[in-house]
Specification:
The chain has 18 helices and five strands. With about 475 residues, it is mainly alpha-helical. The chain has one domain. The two termini are about 20 Å apart.
């Protein structure tokens, strides 16, 4: 490449392909540190507490309202772990080179999505059927839902099918994205990791035809995952929240639920990168560029969160019918008003204020702070939506048929078993991800090596930049 006084080659201080192979896939990969082992045991203990909380809920079932925090926790897990793989899909479609080191962290979240799908099965037993017999009317009363003229247990079947499909698509994408690394572990690893790498690599040796096959299938599974994610957020938010509240009709809620899932997925990936740099020994491969780029995406989705929330809120505010007023009171100004203001502060105001500053967004510490606030805010948002919905159990079926909420329910405060569930189930999902990283490197080796093929450090005017070639 020709150089001039403005553009010149500089020394390439990046790890070579051989060094990256040893660091990420070879015998040089260090075993789990004592700190990581202790953290894994803590996650395992928290997971046990979570399942104890679920068991207690079944043994001492006091009504639908007691399952609100369980529903909110599963919704939060689907929001975070289900949205994270989008970080691996969207930049890859746009051929963004910066996302390569972060793609593995994002794709591994699909493991926790599969766990969420399995943990949703107990909640299905507490989801009311579409029709309930009324002795006063002598006829069945059908609650409002999207399942018109469907069998009584249509939501139960389709929701588990959709979420399992989402989990399988995510697992397939994560496996395909790790396939070249399994081959590298087979060729350069040792012990049990090498044995598993040989089984999982399935004859992949990096021939041109295999790379074409791999890229095509990653694209197909990624596009399919994105489509199913939209559908999963659509059905879950309606069946497990909106349809349980008489009179709540909101066409924007599924899109609000989806955009907040993308926001949470980006936040999770940012924290994953920060943790990998801090404790995973991969600071040579991930860092400033990933933080900066994901920080801009987090700012964009934070603004979109407010846009979709306001678009939904303003319809009820100007409608001012009896059902609109009751819905607003239930979700915003009534028993969960303090939860709402916590959500508004942590999911929008605080991260927006932090990320609008260039020096903060362009740092390694700024995006993780904003990401932490976003995840906390969206956790309270799921409590606001789902705990309120599951507490709005109608006493009068005739009023429910007329889409009227008979009375405003009281605030449902969590008990110790709800705390077990809220802490234990996300810990179980995170435990699954960390256990898989003992085999698969947390940074994709083949992505790092491919990035090296199309990039070159140069000096441009008074600074150093990375020149990126156009990929195929």
């Amino acid at each position: 490449m020709a150089t001039s006084s403005l553009i010149a080659d500089v020394t390439d201080n990046r790890p070579s392909n051989q060094e990256a192979t040893v660091d990420l896939a070879g015998e040089g990969r260090t075993a789990a540190s004592s700190g990581l082992k202790l953290f894994l045991w803590a996650l395992a203990a928290a997971s046990v507490l979570g399942f104890i909380g679920i068991a207690f809920r079944f043994i001492n079932d006091g009504g639908r309202q007691e399952w609100g925090y369980y529903a909110a926790t599963l919704a939060f897990m689907m929001t975070v772990f289900g949205g994270a793989p989008i970080v691996a899909i969207a930049p890859a479609i746009a051929k963004a080179n910066w996302a390569r080191p972060a793609a593995r962290i994002a794709s591994l979240a699909s493991i926790a999505t599969a766990m969420t799908a399995l943990m949703m099965i107990p909640l299905l037993f507490k989801l009311p059927p579409l029709t309930v017999f009324s002795e006063a009317l002598g006829d069945d009363i059908r609650r409002t839902s999207i399942w018109f003229d469907s069998p009584d247990y249509a939501p139960h079947f389709w929701n588990v099918l959709i979420l399992l499909t989402l989990a399988l698509a995510g697992l397939a994408m994560a496996y395909l994205m790790a396939l070249p690394d399994f081959a590298a572990i087979r060729d350069h690893g040792s012990g049990w990791k090498q044995r598993w790498g040989k089984k999982l690599a399935r004859g992949f040796h990096g021939r041109p035809q295999q790379w074409e096959w791999l890229k095509m299938r990653i694209g197909v599974t990624g596009a399919f995952y994105f489509a199913i994610l939209l559908f999963a957020n659509f059905t879950f938010s309606i069946d497990f929240a909106m349809s349980l509240v008489p009179g709540w009709k909101d066409a924007i809620l599924p899109f609000y639920h989806t955009i907040s899932s993308m926001q949470a997925g980006i936040a999770f990936t940012i924290l994953g990168i920060w943790a990998a740099r801090r404790w995973g020994g991969v600071s040579k491969y991930v860092g400033h560029e990933q933080m900066w780029s994901l920080g801009k995406l987090l700012l964009a989705t934070t603004l979109l969160w407010f846009y979709f929330f306001y678009s939904s809120f303003i319809v009820f505010w100007y409608g001012r019918t009896a059902t609109d007023t009751l819905t607003l009171k239930l979700l915003v100004s009534g028993p969960y008003i303090y939860v709402f203001w916590t959500v508004f502060l942590l999911a929008f105001i605080a991260p927006w204020w932090v990320m609008i500053w260039n020096k903060v967004r362009d740092s390694v510490w700024g995006p993780p702070i904003a990401a932490t606030m976003v995840l906390i805010g969206l956790f309270f948002d799921r409590i606001r939506l789902y705990v309120a919905s599951w507490s709005a159990e109608p006493d009068n079926l005739e009023l429910a048929k007329l889409s009227m909420l008979e009375k405003m329910p009281d605030t449902v405060w969590p008990d110790v078993f709800d705390v077990f569930i809220m802490v234990g189930l996300p810990a179980f999902g995170l435990l699954g991800i960390l256990l898989v990283t003992r085999l698969v490197p947390v940074v994709s080796l083949w992505e790092v090596q491919q990035s090296r093929l199309i990039t070159k450090p140069i000096r441009f005017m008074r600074t150093h930049v990375m020149l990126v070639g156009k990929p195929d």
